Amino acid sequence: MLRFVVRRLLLLVPILLGLSILVFGWIRALPGGPAEALLGERATAASIAQIEKQYGLDKPIYVQYGSYLKTVATGDLGSSIRTRQPVVEEIKRRFPATVELAFAAGLFSIIFGIPLGFFAAKRYGGFLDHASLVGSLLGISIPVFFLGIVLKYIFSVKLGLLPTVGRISVLIDVETPTNFYILDSIIALNGEALWDVLKHLLLPAIALGSIPLAIIARITRAAVLDVQNEDYVRTARAKGVSPGIVDRRHVLRNALLPITTIIGLQVGLLLSGAVLTETVFAFPGMGTLLVDAIDNRDFPVLQGGILFLAVIFVFVNLLVDLSYAVINPRIRLS
Predict the structure, then answer these.
(1) Residue 80 included in any domain
(2) Which domain holds residue 50?
(3) What is the mean pLDDT of each run of 10 residues along the chain (334 residues)?
(4) Whether residue 106 sits in one domain with residue 69
(5) Are residues 178 and 309 in the same domain?
(6) Are 297 and 33 a contacting pair, CB within 8 Å?
């Protein structure tokens, strides 16, 4: 297993190198540039040239890329052109929000998706099965931004039950040293702040978790249908083993491999930045950070943010691969 982990980590080097080349070229192909974004209406040819010289943007692109690689190799992702803050600090401030949102959305999709798919398979051809199929198709088809707007309209505008934007109300006073607002509220023993953070998290988590929920439910249904017809399942039932034990030990456990794969991929995607959800709910995470960076042509933030999310995605998938051996001991990684 150690060899497998080392090999996967070594593969991270060419992946990040290739991604850095693509991102570096794509960003510089965007119309406009940091100088125009910074100067706005005051932009003149002379002022643009001055800013480009200040940030080295007047040099050939291969020279810029070489300088960027040297900087990144030292662990420095550069500084934001707009805020002058180190990109690492920007990520440290924004990433916890995305982690909380992704965790809540993933938890929502797993808690409802696996049971829905399991019971749909157990009642194959029945009402619940057909309803789950229709519901999962709707969940996959409805755009996240549209669902977010609908949820805001129903639960915030019409019912007035939940907030529409942000992570916490401006009237709540709580220290946030870790930027994980849930954890900070618990550490501070501030129940009011914790409840407010959870209320702000609920609608974005449901909107973001709708597509993973639908996918997990469909994969679970297909996996359970496939496993419950295996010989070892029929043998266990023929021996008189109770249905509950058969379902837990033989059906669900063996069906978890494809389910775990899809959960890992979805969690990786959620952590990679819920851009649309964070934009709709003005949720200050990595998604809004990257959107702001695109709007302002903030090259260092875009490059550093995308590379950081790529590393997170690879590590999440590595953990998923390692979990296979835990779920099914017959699988050995080498």
Answers:
(1) no
(2) 2-73
(3) 73 82 80 69 73 76 83 82 86 90 91 88 81 83 87 90 88 87 91 92 91 88 81 75 73 78 78 78 88 83 86 78 66 56
(4) no
(5) yes
(6) yes
